[in-house]
Design brief:
heterodimer, A: mainly alpha, 15 helices, B: alpha/beta, seven-stranded mixed beta sheet, four-stranded antiparallel beta sheet, 6 helices, 11 strands
């Protein structure tokens, strides 16, 4: 082993094996463990890593190399699985509720700001855009200071709501890959939030998922007032909203059915099944073809 | 010796389990499969590679190979592969099944789990060695031929690709045979296809493919 080490020292500059050792998982930099490198490193092409590791003195021999590799891959994989699963349905539930709160509060405060700002700045705009613009101004006197400061808060809360949405978009596909693929990340998070978690959503019948978010209308209907709601929050999905009104019942039923299956796969298995999306597309083509058959457009 | 079969790699044998002769490998049980002494049954109905071996396809496997396995899922098949092969790299993209895969790795020093996307080989080329003898692919994604083509870089020039094509992952509406034709034609840009066989007896709408780099 010592002889090999010496040889290695003499040949680091002109390695006789092809492959860029500096890319290898075992060529970890300062403050980086081999497991970190397994996780975050990359290389365009593979190389004879076992031989390169022995040549560079990282491993005594091939057996030593594989033992270290196994330790690093298991550690890296376990850590990443733990971390990605922490991005679970609870986090999404809180994030989507926080996003809605932030949006509502920003709009309420923006109204207050417009009303107040109108008395001080005759050219002030309205809404959140107006607040953004006010936040840039130089206040003159204590009253203006308060208005500009409040407008700044509104702009910040609105920015936070955007950040929360970006967070949901990055995490929902991990916590619920199939549901996110079919519903979009934000609607997926909303459904999880309305049901109280992915597990409870997975256990709901499709007819319940279909009207989640339309509880007021549903209970009015059950009390004997009005017709039963055709859709709840899934109304925001293009496949419901973009379908002509007389076919929306069928469209929401088909969509809710697939979303229910997606939620169940996400909860019980967790692997991504692209065929679900294709099946839904196929079903929606059939439903929308009715509009064409009737000679009308989809609106 | 009972159950040796020239078409099977060393370390894979047909043995009796509850009166039935079944494929088996020697190793720690992973998913509650029946055992007979040190041997554990390899269920062809739960494993596409098992199905290919059961149908007698010429996989070229002899035992002790270096293997890159794409789409390891919860480790059912890859645990059997690691029982008879040498260094085995198991790539899987979804975190949840990888939990079970990690359990399968526990008693197997030659099985290396990687939480990576098989469509992006550059994210694991710094770990997986060059010139692997075998590339096993069982991924449920659109563009299965493309995944095989992109991962050609890991395979030795005389290596084997053992691929299970899932028709429904490419297009649920199209006839499986049309899907298979298209996948095979994409595959031929990089591989020479040696043998194909429908796996329907064990897995509906799946095609088993044995190929070698061009």
């Amino acid at each position: 082993m010592n002889r090999r080490r010496e040889r290695m020292c003499m040949t680091t500059d002109d390695a006789d094996l092809p492959g860029d050792v500096s890319r290898a998982w075992f060529a970890a930099g300062d403050g980086e463990s081999p497991a970190d490198r397994v996780r975050d490193g990359d290389a365009e092409a593979p190389a004879d890593w076992p031989a390169l590791a022995v040549e560079s003195g990282f491993a005594a021999d091939e057996d030593d190399y594989y033992a270290t590799l196994r330790e690093a891959t298991v550690e890296a994989t376990r850590a990443e699985v733990d971390e990605r699963e922490r991005a679970d349905d609870r986090q999404l539930l809180h994030a989507v509720r926080a996003m809605d709160d932030a949006e509502r509060v920003a709009n309420e405060l923006a109204e207050r700001v417009s009303e107040w700002a109108g008395t001080l700045f005759p050219d002030a705009g309205t809404g959140i855009e107006g607040c953004r613009e006010l936040a840039e101004r130089d206040p003159d006197g204590p009253a203006e200071e308060r208005v500009v400061s409040l407008a700044t808060r509104v702009a910040e809360i609105d920015g936070e709501s955007g950040e929360l949405e970006a967070f949901i978009e990055s995490r929902a596909p991990i916590a619920a890959p199939n549901l996110s693929a079919l519903a979009g990340p934000v609607l997926a998070a909303r459904l999880i939030s309305l049901a109280g978690g992915l597990e409870t959503l997975a256990k709901k019948p499709s007819g319940t998922l279909q009207v989640l978010g339309a509880e007021d209308a549903l209970f009015a209907h059950l009390r004997g007032h009005g017709s039963s709601p055709k859709h709840g929050v899934i109304y925001t999905h293009e496949y419901v909203r973009g379908t002509r009104p007389e076919d929306r019942g069928s469209a929401s039923r088909a969509l809710a059915g697939k979303l229910t299956i997606a939620a169940r796969i996400d909860h019980y298995s967790g692997d991504y099944r692209p065929e679900l999306e294709a099946e839904l597309d196929e079903r929606m083509r059939t439903i929308r073809a009715r509009a064409e058959a009737d000679g009308g457009g989809s609106e | 010796m009972t159950g040796t079969d020239p078409s099977l790699p060393d370390g894979v044998e047909r043995r009796e389990f509850d009166g039935d002769e079944r494929l088996s490998t020697r190793g720690e049980p992973v998913y509650g499969e029946p055992t007979n002494g040190e041997w554990r049954a390899w269920d062809a109905g739960r494993s596409k590679l098992g199905g290919m071996l059961e149908l007698g396809m010429d996989t070229g496997l002899s035992g002790d190979e270096t293997v890159l396995y794409l789409g390891a899922a919860n480790g059912t098949t890859v645990s059997h592969v690691a029982d008879f092969a040498g260094p085995t790299y198991a790539v899987e993209f979804s975190p949840r099944p990888v939990r079970d895969l990690l359990d399968a790795c526990e008693p197997r020093p030659n099985l290396f789990p990687l939480l990576k996307d098989a469509r992006r080989p550059e994210t694991y080329a710094h770990v997986v060695e060059a010139d692997c003898d075998v590339l096993v692919q069982d991924v449920a994604t659109r563009g299965q031929a493309d995944v095989a083509v992109r991962n050609r870089r890991f395979l030795a020039d005389d290596g084997r690709l053992l691929l299970a094509v899932k028709a429904r992952s490419e297009d649920v509406a199209a006839a499986p045979d049309a899907v298979f034709d298209e996948v095979l034609s994409d595959l031929r840009s990089t591989y020479e296809v040696l043998e194909t066989r429908p796996l329907d007896r064990f897995h509906e709408d799946h095609l088993g493919v044995v190929a070698t780099p061009r």
